[in-house]
Amino acid sequence: MKGHAQGRRNLASPAVAAWADGLRLMGALATADARRGASWLSAVGPAMALLLVYDLPSEVVFPLAWANGVLAAVLATGHVPRATGRIGGPGQDRRITLAWSQERAVWPCLGFAVLGILGGGAAVGPCGAGVAGVAVSVVVLAGCRRLGCSTADAVSGTLALTVLAMVVAFDGPGPSSPIAGVLRFVVAWAVLAMALLATSAQVDRAAWLAREVTSGGGPLGFSELRRWYFRLMMAVVLIGMVRWLFASEPRVGLYGLAGGLLAASFVLPEVLLSPAGASAGCWLHVAWAEGGTRSTWRRVQRSLLAAVVTGWPLMIALVLVPATRGVEALLAVAAIVAVVLVAAVMHTAVGRRLLAGDTAFAMAALSVWCVTLVGVRILAAAPLAVM
Questions:
Q1: Are residues 202 and 279 in contact, defined by beta-carbon separation less than 8 angstroms?
Q2: How far apart are CA 306 and CA 144, in angstroms?
Q3: Whole-angstrom Cα distance, residue 50 to residue 276?
Q4: 183 CB contacts (<8 Å, ≥6 apart)?
């Protein structure tokens, strides 16, 4: 009997030791992340943003709450530290990176949990949708990073697919029931997420040098995945121009909201989550030598390209369709311009070391998102309510 008990202790020891090591690692990561402004912003900001939408119809609340969770996940994640390498890396790096992803995802979940407890029954559903958005976004971000994406590309893709899924949910044929609208959004999000992972797995397969030098907005230009993003964005804004701006009753407000969010999804991560020197060290001299000869447009395209792609269909509609000329068009243009200005201001703050890149990204993204939620309420003609 004594030998049997000793054998059980020996078998259990490795598992117990692994759990103890994991807890110590999570505690160390949580202590470090408690000093990050982005961690606290991801815990408090998205939860407070739910106060703007929790009382809207359920077919509207669920997509917005899910998107709120997606935003919370990317705010909490920020930029992957260089020391951990890619998710899926060998040995200790892989273990640390997985623990890092899980620990940072806890921050927004705690914020939603507290709001759900304090807000009563009306807040439980939106908070649950927010937690679901956090969980699936962490998986998608980890998958993109495992396939070699830069942090900026992974975050841009996750945010953009969420915007497109919301467009499908809000602008498709009227659902026969609220559940049908929710299912349409979830299916659209899942399909787009799988498409993002599939695309991430295929691009740059034969161009590792280009990926090393350009990934994350390096001096030689955009990565191949981001170029695919812009091609998709071009197709989306053309469809939006025909669908919303050239209709008998132009829906300029909806185009402005979707366009502003798409522009923010591509501009903010690229400008604020692409740290200097992200390229492989052995190619930095090549990148910066080429970067010194770039034209003015190439120097500013990280900040302006997405805004130009989003804004030119609206400019065409303003010239060709008199019905689009109004306050909504001015607000839509102002929203796109504001995204670029916010990115420029935050980039300057990061460059002067006033803010960390992930904190600046969190502040900028939260500002854009809260303004968007106010715009949604205005379009829905629903009075603001306080929980």
A1: no
A2: 21
A3: 34
A4: none
As a whole number of angstroms, the distance between CA 192 and CA 78 comes to: 22
Structure tokens at 131: 């937690």
* Alpha-carbon gap, residue 260 to 314, rounded angstroms: 12
End-to-end CA distance of the chain: 61
**How many angstroms separate the CA atoms of 116 and 162, rounded?**
23
User: 261: which 2 tokens?
Assistant: 């969010």
Digit-by-digit pLDDT tens for the chain (387 residues) are 445 445 444 444 665 555 566 666 667 777 777 788 888 999 999 999 998 888 887 778 899 999 999 999 999 988 765 444 343 444 455 666 677 777 888 889 999 999 988 877 778 888 999 999 999 999 999 888 888 788 888 899 999 999 999 988 887 666 556 677 788 899 999 999 999 998 888 765 544 444 444 444 444 567 778 888 998 999 999 998 998 899 888 889 889 889 999 999 999 998 888 654 444 444 445 555 555 555 666 667 777 888 889 999 999 999 999 989 888 899 899 999 999 999 999 988 988 888 888 899 999 999 999 999 988 888 776 444 433
Nearest CA to 178 out of 315, 63, 51 is that of 63
For 111-154, the DSSP string reads HHHHHHHHH-HHHHHHHHHHHHHHHHHHHHHHHHHHTT--HHHH
Quick one: tokens of 203?
């691009």
Element (H, E) at 305: helix 296-320
